[in-house]
Amino acid sequence: QVLLVFAEEDEQSNGFRWACDKAGFRCNLARTPQSALECFLDKHHDIIIIDHRHSRYFDAEALCRSIRTTKASENTVIICVVQRHTDREESSILPLISAGFTRRYVENSSRMACYNELIQLEFGQVQAQFKLRACNSLFTALEKSQEAIEITSEDHVIQYVNPAFETMMGYQIGELIEKELTEVPINEKKSDFLDTINSCIKIGKEWQGMYYAKKKNGDCIQQNVKILPVIGQGGKIRHYVSISRLCNDNNKVEKTCECIQAESQTDTQTCRHKDMRKGSLDVRSTTSRGSDGISQRRRSSMARVHSMTIEAPITKVINIINAAQESSPMPVAEALDRALEILRTTELYSPQLGTKDEDPHTSDLVGGLMTDGLRRLSGNEYILSAKQTHQVAGSLSSPISLNDIPPRITQAMENEEQWDFDIFELEAATHKRPLVYLGLKIFARFGICEFLNCSESTLRSWLQVIEANYHSSNSYHNSTHSADVLHATAYFLSKERVKQTLDPIDEVAALIAATVHDVDHPGRTNSFLCNAGSELAILYNDTAVLESHHAALAFQLTTRDGKCNIFKNMERNEYRTLRQVIIDMVLATEMTKHFEHVNKFVNSINKPLAALEENGNNGDGESIKTVLRSPENRILIKRMLIKCADISNPCRPREQCIEWAGRISEEYFAQTDEERRQGLPVVMPVFDRNTCSIPKSQLSFIDYFIIDMFDAWDAFADLPNLMEHLNNNIKYWKGLDGRNLRVLRPPP
């Protein structure tokens, strides 16, 4: 709302009235100071514009002072319109500031000038005042909090305490404000205490522990305290927030002894750094770095999980912990409560990022790849090719035989059994149809036709149908990516430990799953499809949308035409088993379950194998076979295999890694462009083609998703060449990032 105070109507007042109408602001006009004050007290305008050009009508500065004396004006922006003087020196603005004006406006009756002034005010001072108003509700929450809260400056000067703090410590707020912590005798060894925690909080880490504090009357109380540094301007710590509450036994006994600092617990369990890879794994030492989420101590009266007639394993674990708590000392009970808090989450395997400010590249990648998007109910729907006529065998030209492959393509596939095989050379040689040719060669090497009891011509037709349903217009998710994943899958299947583990049907399923795992991919993420209300998102209930579509369409394309039905001669039960494995592997490529798959693989396979080796059972084939060959573990191995194959780009030779990075970045850029065109939520705003740092995005992806997974896979399958490429590529991206370059390659 805008209040215009002009004694007479003129071009300037008309300009502001027009600007208010154009901007959609409600506008009132007052001619006298008295009517202006009455109108403001009734309406509480956000902006007041007072005419200061003609002192003969009223004293603008006196009116401003009168308005400022009212409580309602605390968050009001007041503008002073002054005359334009071209023949004398600029006058000082200080008298206007002293009178209470926010800023001045040199008269300009141009309608667009008035409009621009209002828009600048809206997105500048007015928006800032809205935020200040919102602070009132935040302080209300602090005032009503039952936990004692103390806020200090970066120099440990007390700036705020809430009533709960006053009640707990026996001080009045006036006795504490502007005092340094060392001036307040809360703890007789306060300086030592600050030295202890400063080593933690001064570098941005959170501290939590218990200590005895002295009240104003001299009594000692035991508190559970959490101190959090708050990052402010310049990326530096500007405040500290301390949250305290009494430990349970303080209600029974208060000590009036010399206060000493209790165990401050500044070890790795309570002095935490918000590492963006929470829950990451050190496979080589077979220990988990674990999650650092520390929850507040639950009250002892918290409702316990009761026994059930049919107990799930997690329920049994929670009941055991609950029982152990009853006779545990306080520190142990506190730790068990935190464990219970973690166990009760539905995302047991997914680490949580700290604040979004920590690393926007990682946050956006996680938001874009590991969520199903923001739900958006509108008519702005994105129609994927759900009604599109997919390519079928009869509509395609007959592919050539494996024996008739042109020499250039044969030469491009000569080293396809090696990890350094160049898929882009094959892409060029085949005019962007690498999947048919590479598929024919790899499937022949693994004897797929013999296993499926199908002819080579049927396999050729099937490969061509599948490749035709990949979108060549996608920069990344096209048939070249499928061929690359097929190659990586075949390479992993040739590793000795993998061969010991999997059966022939598993190998067949893995190669087929790799071939079809992204068929008909639209070049957009699951989050995009869910936000856009696409037909596929509706069909699959916003859950694993693309992966479900890839698996379903693959079987539809295969079985609808006998010419390409590679399963038509299989025995029914064997086909059902094969189909189940293929679907499970394709669904495993969905990123929301990434950490669950990796953690289960480490805990069920890496660690037991490492334990056998440590105990000198390296030659005990039966023990190793028990770990490798159990049905549950074979499923985990197959999931891990295709996951690693699917996102192995950072482990490829450098030039291939760079090319893949450019392609996925372009696909994400295109998605961001389309989201903005359609007015959809931008799920990965960091992927703006004008500002994105590709090296940073690659480093974030590698650090959050790749390193732990390939550490685990390397420990299992022995892949030193991949890990060497990975380390070299990390150094390459860090080198570019260190030079503040946002591009794929350094300038010549």
Automatic annotation (TrEMBL):
Binding site for Zn(2+) 1: 481, 517-518, 646
EC numbers, comma separated: 3.1.4.-
Residue ranges with Polar residues bias: 283-294
Cofactor binding comment, as recorded: Binds 2 divalent metal cations per subunit. Site 1 may preferentially bind zinc ions, while site 2 has a preference for magnesium and/or manganese ions.
Example of a GO MF term: 3',5'-cyclic-AMP phosphodiesterase activity
Keywords assigned by UniProt, alphabetized: cAMP, Hydrolase, Metal-binding, Phosphoprotein
Coiled-coil zones: none
Active-site residues (renumbered): 477
InterPro entries membership: HD/PDEase_dom, PAS, PAS-like_dom_sf, PDE8-like_REC_N, PDEase, PDEase_catalytic_dom, PDEase_catalytic_dom_sf, PDEase_CS
Annotated positions binding AMP: 477-481, 518, 646, 698
Ranges where the record places region Disordered: 279-304
Occurrences of domain PAS (ranges): 134-204
UniProt-annotated binding residues for Zn(2+) 2: 518
Domain PDEase: 401-740
Catalytic class of the enzyme: hydrolase
SUPFAM superfamilies: HD-domain/PDEase-like (SSF109604), PYP-like sensor domain (PAS domain) (SSF55785)
Record-level GO BP terms: cAMP catabolic process; cellular response to epidermal growth factor stimulus; positive regulation of ERK1 and ERK2 cascade; regulation of DNA-templated transcription; signal transduction
Associated pathway: Purine metabolism; 3',5'-cyclic AMP degradation; AMP from 3',5'-cyclic AMP: step 1/1
Entry cofactors: a divalent metal cation
Entries under CDD domains matching the protein: HDc, PAS
Summary of subunit composition and partner proteins: Interacts with RAF1. The interaction promotes RAF1 activity.
UniProt similarity note: Belongs to the cyclic nucleotide phosphodiesterase family. PDE8 subfamily.
Job of this protein: Hydrolyzes the second messenger cAMP, which is a key regulator of many important physiological processes. May be involved in maintaining basal levels of the cyclic nucleotide and/or in the cAMP regulation of germ cell development. Binding to RAF1 reduces RAF1 'Ser-259' inhibitory-phosphorylation and stimulates RAF1-dependent EGF-activated ERK-signaling. Protects against cell death induced by hydrogen peroxide and staurosporine.
Protein name: Phosphodiesterase
Lineage: Eukaryota, Metazoa, Chordata, Craniata, Vertebrata
